[in-house]
Design brief:
Layout lengths: L14 H36 L5 H10 L3 E3 L13 E4 L11 E4 L9 H6 L5 H4 L4 E3 L5 E10 L8 H7 L5 E11 L4 E10 L2 H13 L27 E6 L3 E9 L7 H23 L8
Antiparallel strand pairs: 1-8, 2-3, 4-5, 5-6, 6-7, 7-9, 8-9
Amino acid sequence: MTFGDQGFPYGPPDPYAQFAAQQHRIEQERIEQERIEQGRIRRRRRNRRAAVAGIGAVLVAAVAAGVVMAAGDDGGGPAAAPPAATATATPSGARSAVPSVDASLPSDAPSSLPSLLARPVIRPEQAFPSKSVRLGDGSRYSRVDLATTTDCARGMSAELAELIQQGGKCSRLTAALFTDADRRSQVTVTVLSFARVEDASRVFMMASMDPVTYQVVSLDPPPEAGLPTVPPGSAGVFRRVMTVRSVVFANGQWGDGSETGEAELTAQTEGLLKHVMDTVVTYEDGEAGESG
């Protein structure tokens, strides 16, 4: 179970060589994706900055009704804003790749929120209970890898790790790698959970504005899966949703790095994201029992 080309096993790692290799892969992917998506990112950033005002009520409705806040990469549907959060520009003379982001709960947060947050964060076997998944459209997927860690920085870009350091640390990161029935696609779905809603909100907001910079790492298939490793820099589909206390990411790519078949890859990525989202929402809303 690994993150990235060079590993990050959950046994004792070689921190220097593996960290350097992982950062090299992330940098390669970011450069390529920035070239492909920079126009879209600029448009999303303008739209979401304009939507920041008056977003506290969205959290109240989301927690009370068990609704998630979702954002896509192509503007193909309504996107609800996260809890009150603002990004502060870096002061003149200072240089930083990650802005200071403040996030806070609305004063009228629902009374049920403390009891929901008192539950343990979702465990790997609760987030990804099955090795075989069938979606509502009849498509089938196999889970070929599962990885989890409480050292969340190992499974994300350096910018996302730095952003998280501004608030409370991540409680757990769990990722699963899925492939379709034809074994062409590789979709990594990652559940990033926090003790505080504000910290999940900070991550969701910045990842929605700039999914290339603030990204989690896609899993490489283990040797026994018999799947190729996606070539570095390959195009992909990035999606994410926010639940009560987690941000769920989905990164979809074709195993051979192909840039064709975008609609099919998007449908697979979004379908698996929704499937995992429903599982996380059920748990975090207390509908899965109190034994977790």
